[in-house]
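Entry: Acyl-CoA synthetase family member 2, mitochondrial
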Amino acid sequence: MTRLRSALGQTVCVLTLASTAVLWYLSRERLIETARPRPTGLLVNSSVCQLPEFHPWDPTVLQVLRDERPLAPCSADSPVRLTQLGRTLTMEVHRDRLRAGCRLDCCLRSVRREQDGHSDDQFRLGEQEVCFRGRTALTVSEQFVKVTCACSDEPDVAIFEDFRAFFIPEVDRLRSQQRVSVSDVQQLSVYLVGIDSVSTLNFRRFLPKVREVLETDLQAVPMLGLTKVGANTLPNLVALLTGLRLDQLNQSLREEPYDHQPLIWKHFSSLNYLTMYTEDMSNMATFNFHRRGFLTQPTDIYLRPLHLASEQSRLAQRRGDHCVGHRLTFELQLQLLQDLMAAPDPSSPHFALVFSNAPSHAGPLSHIGALQPGLLEFLRAYRTSSRRNASVLILFSDHGMRFGPVMRTELGGYESRMPLLYVVLPPWYERRYPRRVASLRGNSRRLITFFDVHATLRQLLVDAGASLPNVPSPGLSLFAPVPEQRSCRDAGVDPAWCTCRRHVALPADHAVVVRAAVAAVRHIDTVLLRAVRDRCARLGLRRVLSALLTVSEGGGPVQDTEYNLRGFDELSVQLVTAPGGAEFEATVRCYSGPGDPERDTAGGPALAARCRPEHRLEVLEVTRLNLYRGQSDCLTHHHDERSYLHCAGSAPLVHTSLGDVVDRAASEFGSQEALVFVHQDIRRTWLEVRQEADRLARGFLSLGLEKGDRIGIWATNIYEVRELEYCLRKVGVRTLVAAAGYRTSDYYTMLTELVPALADGEAGVPLTVRSERLPELRDIVMISPERRRGVLRFDDLLDAGMESLSGELERRQAQVDCD
């Protein structure tokens, strides 16, 4: 009641109320929107960090999953099908898929890196061709090849293209690399297989057979508490490969190549390891996405030239950029890794990083299911490989899905921070190192990061005979116990990504939430887009989607004790900006100074009292939740800003009011449907909208409203509110839309408590209000089928809009300034 009185007393002249039935309908809808996932247990349960466990098919994400479209399969209807075994390439021709009279010629050309030392984006095709010429199989001597088939009478018109990678031992060594001789040490091969944007939960949803093989057949250890340390792939892979944060690299991430960074494969290479690095989708690769990559080939085997070539082939990728011919690009990568593992020299150890961006990067979530057959084939081959007994295999992801509808759910935000990680050790490893394996299993339910994975790889390097420089990293080897008291700060996890802390939901229209959302939009505009201010549209807050408040346990410290909330409140707010409809998640702190350790942290009035308008707001992190393709194409540099920016249009702003826009739409599209309110069974054309808006505007004029008067609207999403918005813009009246959180079931009784004189009025006859408690309140209109004492019904206001006031309405509308 206090909040209502405050709002009315400040701004309202006429109050419009919605009926109970309509509010009840919207209330049910609101419950669906704010439903929260239900924990089924705890992944991590330490004294300072409790990570909840959720069911993969939690009801809050079911609708998102049901709405997803399946991934288009790679082409299976080509006239040629290639298979490879080792260095032998076999061709099968489906003549029923060829045109009549076509005699097929198929030839191979090498694909090689071009301008090594100067560019990471150039390749060339070899001049010499090797053709099948009636044979069904060829022995390949080149590392990467392009296969082209054409009818002999049209040799320049390709009808089939494919790209293949082969392990050629004599060429898969960097001649310039200096290596040291190491003997009498255990040199385990290390195979890292990464898949972009896969959370542990989504792995359980769509790769269940892979999980079964890992846990049952390979005795893999899942690291359930793995938490990402940055928003996207780069900070997480940098942590994995260097043990460092991005700000420790001491280079421009966009302008300088990454050749001189202390990437861990360099240490393996110095110990005579053969090294391999491959990422599909060359434009999305971690070190190449708006970056310069590696000017000099970084590893012995580097598939980037082959991916660059295949992405220029319309035939090879005719079913999507996740395909090369009839195979997934991921299957091409795994094929080469299998061939590497099958190399005849078991004494030569390997370090390999295979990372797939397609088809998982952009989603939907279900698309990773297409990777299951290839992964199963690879894991079964690995299980029987001679390398199994002399290698460590790590299957991982960089983070969960970061875009799309799932990010509008609370569980989606949680998943995005909790990527997949499994560790497979040699069968004998536990017998030789029982404490290491016991620690690894114990750490399965500890808070860990990619810094720790890096520290674990360093321990394998030391075992292999390496002498390593110190790295200023928070990483701890997973072969030793991770401290039970470890916090997010200890682990190197910023507050925006820390999932150790408990949250409670806040109403999207809570005053502090709205302030935090406005602060986030201002931060985007004035800080994140400062360097490109002249090229982007000014952003505004369209609406708040959801909000969570980080709460304390036991009257003060949060569960992650390193983040003590006695001096500030921390909110996670999801919001939509305009123009463009960009969706963001922002982490915002409100600093209120040293607080009461016994204070209530569950939000509501206590939060509003702690975080007042005079208190400082700090925006810690803002991340984009939906795709921004096409919205920031005006930027050719400053790529860090692309996810936040909406390019300014070239057309000038139109100086017109909303009332004029409605009139123009009625003139141009009069008979076309303009508004549909299904729950009210109301449909209106543009002409009907204008006519009813004019009637309503004339009704308000009959009450004596003047330009600059104020009207408070207390209602939900119903047709009458839209008519109010249109009509009030015609007469130059200012509006205040009261928060939906003020809902109750008996508005009239509330008003009679504030204005007792209403009870003495006549039913349906408006009473000119005189109230000391609400000195600015003058008239009350109610959207209701009932007539109440002292208030005017909405329908009666419509009927009061006499045609004789049309001239006055035109005069008022002409005086409205759109500014």
